[in-house]
Design a protein that fits this description.
Strand content: 35-45%
Largest sheet: 5 strands, mixed
CATH architecture of the domain at 29-117 and 159-174: Beta Barrel
CATH class of the domain at 29-117 and 159-174: Mainly Beta
Distance between the termini: 65 Å
Length: about 180
């Protein structure tokens, strides 16, 4: 059986949310999976649908349709989760030997469909245009093109604060009450 090797010229994973194409850098993608069971988290940000047990880790599940203000749609066979490392870039993570990474923070992005792995074709990301209110929540790192389509590249660390808030809400909901 032929072994597939990573092509360094293909550094982005593309996906659709609504009719718009987005991508994330391949080095922050841990895995693309079918949706798992989700547990609701009290007081979580509205874009967090809950948390899931992903390979023994509690991972917040972020609905990108909700985050981008799109209407909900029923889940289909094309619906996927892209599990990302949302820790700061170059955070000095190290392997713990059991497949887990010490200091890593993961989040699952719910997307309508994963399209393809592609590259910048030797180009650079263009700056994202200022779109006004909500620029910080969109988390757009830059813009590129794939064929004739614009592709908005999302910054994985932009999802870190939502991940922290979801996990803090989860801990607060199960923490024992303190004596007063």
């Amino acid at each position: 059986m032929a072994r597939h090797r990573h092509d360094p010229s293909k550094d982005l994973v593309g996906f659709l949310v609504g009719e718009v194409m987005y991508a994330v850098r391949i080095e922050v993608v841990r895995e693309i999976v079918n949706p798992l069971a989700v547990v609701d988290v009290p007081r979580a940000p509205v874009t967090v649908k809950g948390v899931a047990d992903y390979r023994g880790e509690v991972v917040p599940v972020i609905d990108l349709r909700e985050r981008f203000g799109l209407p909900a749609i029923p889940r289909s066979r094309k619906t996927k989760w892209i599990v990302l490392d949302v820790g700061p870039a170059g955070s000095g993570r190290r392997s713990t030997g059991a497949g887990a990474v010490a200091g890593a923070r993961y989040a699952a992005l719910v997307v309508d469909a994963v399209t393809e792995v592609f590259g910048l074709a030797g180009g650079e990301l263009r700056p994202a245009p200022p779109l006004g209110a909500g620029d910080d929540t969109r988390g757009i790192e830059g813009v590129t093109t794939l064929g004739s389509r614009l592709v908005f590249v999302l910054s994985a660390p932009a999802f870190g604060p939502v991940t922290q808030a979801a996990l803090a809400g989860s801990a607060a909901s199960v923490a024992p009450a303190e004596a007063t």
